[in-house]
Design brief:
Blueprint lengths: L4 H9 L21 H14 L20 H16 L4 H7 L5 H12 L4 H13 L7 H19 L6 H17 L6 H10 L6 H18 L1 H6 E2 L9 E4 L6 E2 L6 E2 L3 E4 L9 E3 H9 L2 E4 L2 E9 L20 E4 L4 E3 L1 H4 L4 E10 L4 E12 L24 E4 L5 E3 H5 L10 H20 L2 E3 L2 E3 L2 H24 L7 H6 L4
Antiparallel strand pairs: 1-2, 2-5, 3-4, 5-6, 7-8, 8-9, 9-10, 11-12, 12-13, 13-14, 15-16
Amino acid sequence: MEFNQETSLYSYIYSACETGDHDELSVVLYGRENYREWRRAMNLKLEMTKKLCFVDGTVTVPAKDDPKYGAWKTRNELVLSWIRGSISEEIKENVEALTNAVDVWRGLRQLYSPGDPLLISDVEEEIDSLRQETRTLTEYFVKYNALWMELETLLGDQNKCSCGKEKMEQEKVKTFLKGLHERFHSTRSRIMRENRPLPSLHQVFTLIAEHEELVNVATNEVTRREKLIPNQHPHGLTLKPPTGAPFKCSGCRERGFGWSYRCENDECKDDYVLCEPCANAVMDKPLVRHPFFKESNFLFYEKPASGNRICDGCRKDVLGFVYHCTDTDLDLHPRCFNLKRSISVELEEEEEEEEESVSVSVRLELTRKIPKKCVKCKSKKVGGESKVEGWAYESSDGKFCYHVSCFKEIKLEDGYFSKEKLRKKKDYDEKVAVRSKKSTVSGGGGKKKGSGGKMKKYFKIAAVVFQLVFAAIFGDPISLSVGFIHALGLF
C-alpha cells in the first residue's frame, strides 16, 4: 500500500481540534523583553489547536478557485485573530496591514529576535527534548518540522555552508527518529542500519507512515472494535452491539440504541459510552460537507462554539460534540450529520384472492423542505418554530412524514419494554385484527376483500416506516409491532 504524504498532511492541517480554540492567551507581547515567553505560549496554543502549520510556512496560500481556499481562509483568519489579540496596540500597528498569519509571525520574529542566541538555544532545546508520546505520527512530524524551520530561519547566514546543511539534515533525521514512539523501534532500527547517508526527513516520515498503515490494515478488525481516544477517556473503548436498552452518549449527550463504544475497565466509574458517529468523529476530526449545506465546511468540535446552540438538522439543543461551520454559523449533531439520505425495504404482501404474495416497496427520503404535516405532532413546523424548519423523513408515496425532532422526543427511557407498553400493544393488535376481520365480508360462495385488507396493509407499512426511521436516527434496527408503535403515540 502506497502512503500519500500530501493527503495525510492535508487531512491533519484541515481537521479540527476545538481544545483551546476560544481561550485567550495568558501572555501579551509588548516588546523584545517578553517575546520568548509569548512565543512559547502561542506555540503551545497553535499546536493544541492544530494550527502550527499556518505560521511555520508548511501551508501555502491556495488559489482562490481551489476547493481548499475557503478552509484555508477560515483558519488563517482565526490564527490572525489570536496573534492580534495577544499583542499590544503599539505592536499591532506594525503588522496591521499583513493578511497572512505566516507573514505576521515572521515579521514579529524579525522585529524582536533577529539572531537572538537565547531564542536559538530555546528552540534547540525544544527539538532535542521533543518526543512523540501521545501524538499521532503526523502531529509529531508537523511539530518537529516546525521547530526546525524556525531554527533554520533564526540561524540565517550561519547555515549557508553546504557541508553545514548536509550535517544538519542528518542530525535532523536522527533526532526525529530518536523521539518516535517505541512501537516504531524495529522500523527506526532498520532505517538507521540500512541507509547511509540517511534519507531526508520527509522521506523518513513517509517510510514510517507506510509501515504504520500496513500495521493498521493488518489489525483493521481490532482497531474497529477497540478505540483509544486521547484527551477524552483514559481507557480503551470497545465496540458493543445494541442491547435493546437506551444509553446517553457521553459525547453528543443524545440518546442512542445502536452500536456504541463503551469502557469496560473495572476501575472506571464514569460509565463512559460513545455512539458510533461520535466515536468516529472524535478520532478522525475531519473537514466535511453535507449535501443540504453545500457551501459550508463543517469541522468537528468537542463542545459548542459559544452560548446556546441549536442543531440545524433536528432543531434540538447542541450539548456536546458537534459539527460547526464558522462561515455560515451552522451546527449539526454527529448523529444528524450521518443520517441516511434514503432508506428503503421490500415487503411481501399476501393477496387473499390469488393466494400469492406481491412485493411492496417502502422508501423514505430525508428532506429539509418538510412537505406535509408530521404524523406524530400533526404540524409542519418543528416544535415552537415560527416557520417550517428542520429535517424530516417522508415516504415516497407521500403518506407518511416524521420530523427527526419528533422521534428524538419519544419517551423511551422510562419503561422501554415496560409491562404497560406491552399490554397496550397487545390490546391494540387485537383491536386491529378484529376490525380487519369485520371488514372482510362473505357472499356468493366466496370471500370479498374489503377495507380490512387495506387497513391491515396500511398499519403494516406504518410499522415498517417507523422501524426504518427509528433505525436511522437511533442506530438500532429494532422490530416493533403495530400495537407497540401505537402505544408510543406515533400514529
